[in-house]
Amino acid sequence: MSCMENINRFIIPNDVIATLMQIYKYIGKNDIYSKIASPDIERIVEQTIEKDTYYLGKLLKLDITDARLHLIISKKSIAKNREENILFNLKEILTDIQLKGENYLIQSNNQLNLINYIYQNQYIKFDEEKKLGYSGKYSKRNELDKYNQMVEESRGFVEPIFMSLNYFIDIYNLQPFTSNNKTIAYLMLYLLLLKSEVHAFRYVSFFEMIYNEKETVEERILDASFNWAEGIPQILTFIRFMLDLILRCWQKTDEILKAYEIDSNINKSDNIENTISSFKGNIFTKDDIRLVHPYVSESTINRALKRLRDEKLIKPLGKGRSAKWMKITSF
User: Fold this and answer.
1) Which of 190, 194, 228, 296 is most buried, by the most CB atoms less than 10 A from its CB?
2) pLDDT tens-digit profile of 177-213?
3) How far, in Å, CA of 278 to CA of 233, rounded?
């Protein structure tokens, strides 16, 4: 039996319930966070999508240099080859999920169309397998349809985050298509978590969190997949890990939006100056500033740096996006 078929038999331990309760405290603040971020929400979500595209591209091991990844994602360059076209298509899909995910139907024909849209010029179809009781081959589409129907039928009866994680393990192991199954599994998890009102992923990149812990993620997926084919998957360690990751995303979102609210109420340029002054070392980059002020615009950062340079408080150590700066004196 699959994870989805076993879902009503699964006994949720107390520690998992406790983590879910903490997550739901943050979900209850969705409207508050949305109101805080409302002046810049389009730019905030766009930045999150760009990060998601970058790190999903890295997870899928697209053969694209970092420089080209940044240029294509920021729309400063057009795709020149197949790999770059895939990256561009991924960004379009992630944008659509972020902005219109509520309208997505979890159906096999939609999933097939989605994967073929991303990997254009590849003919991807439903995979087939030998199955006991069938003279020929059995299309995995039938299994995928069964899981998708369970998703729809579980709404209002099964906790949606828990359901999303179970579904992910099923589709990850089923490998319903002839290629690129990892892509569809991750996209469906991304979609279902957003549908579960985990709006932390509007402000914090889901795929960045996954990429930064990819070795552990892969280990937990393997744990969950143990004996999956025999119908007795071991999913608990994966659920614990993912719920902890989701909770950390919410905590990071809370910190970011509190800082954003402060930035919105004071002179942003002065706030950047205070941040630079607080750096322990004398050498810093724009990326160091963005870690503290992720939603401050590039032009605002540039204005603050120019003013401090003109006042001979800092000086550049190079040119370009990754140039370093040095504090000349304490201020």
Assistant:
1) 190
2) 999 999 999 999 999 999 999 999 999 999 999 999 9
3) 49
